[in-house]
Every structure is written in C-alpha cells, then in structure tokens.
Write a structure and sequence with these properties.
NADH Oxidase, 9 helices, 217 residues, alpha+beta, binds flavin mononucleotide, 47% helix
Length: 217
Amino acid sequence: MNIAQIATTRRTCKAFDPARKIPDSVLADLKTVLRFAPSSVNSQPWHFVIAGSDAGKETLAATLDGAFAYNAGKVRAASHVVVFCARNALDEAHLNGLLAQEDADGRFATPEAKAGQANSRNFYVSLHRDQLKDADAWADRQIYIALGNLMQAAAALGVDACPMEGIDVLALDKALGLPEKGLRAVVMCALGYGSDQDFNARLPKSRLPAETLFSEI
Ligand SMILES: Cc1cc2nc3c(=O)[nH]c(=O)nc-3n(C[C@H](O)[C@H](O)[C@H](O)COP(=O)(O)O)c2cc1C
C-alpha cells in the first residue's frame, strides 16, 4: 500500500479482538516510531506508559467511568494501550540530559555547535514558559505529533488503533502515580486487531472535500 492508500483505508478501531496480540517485532517497531518522533528543538517532552498485561490494561480501564465508559471495553480488549504523558516541566535536569544525549550521539562537531543548540533550546523553553505561558500546550502539541506518527505507523504495519481523548486524565494521573514522576496524562491510544464487532470497519470514511481544505497560492 502506498501512503495515500494507507491514509484512506486506516480507520479508528471501535472494537478489538481480545485474542489477538501484536507480535513482539511489530511492537518493537512501534516503540521505535514513538522514540524517534520529532519534537520542537528536540525537546522530547514526553514519556510513554505501555500497558500490555491484563493487569496494566485493567488499571487504565478502571479510570474510564461515566462519560468515558464507552472507551473502557476498547482498552480491555486491545493488545496494548499507550498512555502519552507530558513532562510537567522541562527542567534543567531534562535539558542537560537532552544535550548530553545529543553529544553522545555525535551531533556536535565543535563546542560552539553544542553551545548553540543549548542556547536555541533554552530560548524556546523560556519563550513558552515565561513569555507565552503555554508550556503545557506546547508539550501537548509535540505529543500529538508522536500520536499521529504512531497511528500512521500502526496502519502501515496492519495494526488497528483507537486514539482516545475520551479519557479522565486526572484519574489516570492518580492511577499511574504520574504527578510523583513529574508527568501528566495527555491522550491514549489502544492498539491491536479489530473484531467483527468493529462497526467503523464497515462504514465508509468521511472527510470534507479537498476544495474546502486546500488553497493554492
Ligand atoms: C485526538 C483524537 C482523539 C480521539 N478520541 C476518541 C475516543 O476517545 N474514542 C473513540 O472511539 N474515538 C476517538 N477518536 C477517533 C475519531 O473519532 C476518528 O479519528 C474520526 O472520527 C475519523 O475517523 P477515522 O479515524 O476512522 O478515519 C479520536 C481521534 C483523535 C485523532
């Protein structure tokens, strides 16, 4: 399948087959996609909690009450569920860790190049934290890039996905002890293989027409 075929045939999975698990090699590829997702100034303001065990998935499903209960069955039946978490602060320890990793990975030919990268990243961190005061929203935007990449990669690998904003982030924070780790839940994505109850698989896709979406200048 080419990229356009993947885009037009992938769909949100509304019911997973609990008997089907993602093979280890495919899961490893999906983790690579998450790890290598791009982010502004390589800030990587994220952490991914992956529930593959029944107990792990139950911990997540138990947070999906009331208005969010419609997503609980998907979490229980999926092969794996990714909780996308944001770092609450891009503190000095995180920024130093990024720079040290880039150094170890051979990104800097000279000390000046390393200083330049540190300065550039510090500028954007300070811009969002101190001036625009949208540091959380900035982190969330990066996380949605990772989510989009994961969904596209899953489709390319024949894995069904259900991205989920219908989640109780505060209940998830509590259930996973995220605040103690400097993290907060943002969005989730269930992965696996659709069952014959997946009504969305039988529905045609619907999108606004291209003429509405694109302007050529
Ligand atoms: C960020 C995001 C959050 C979503 N949250 C949910 C959700 O909580 N539960 C659900 O069943 N579908 C959810 N969806 C699926 C959308 O409804 C779906 O992507 C959209 O209707 C287009 O359909 P398609 O993905 O099958 O092409 C979400 C999709 C995105 C991208």
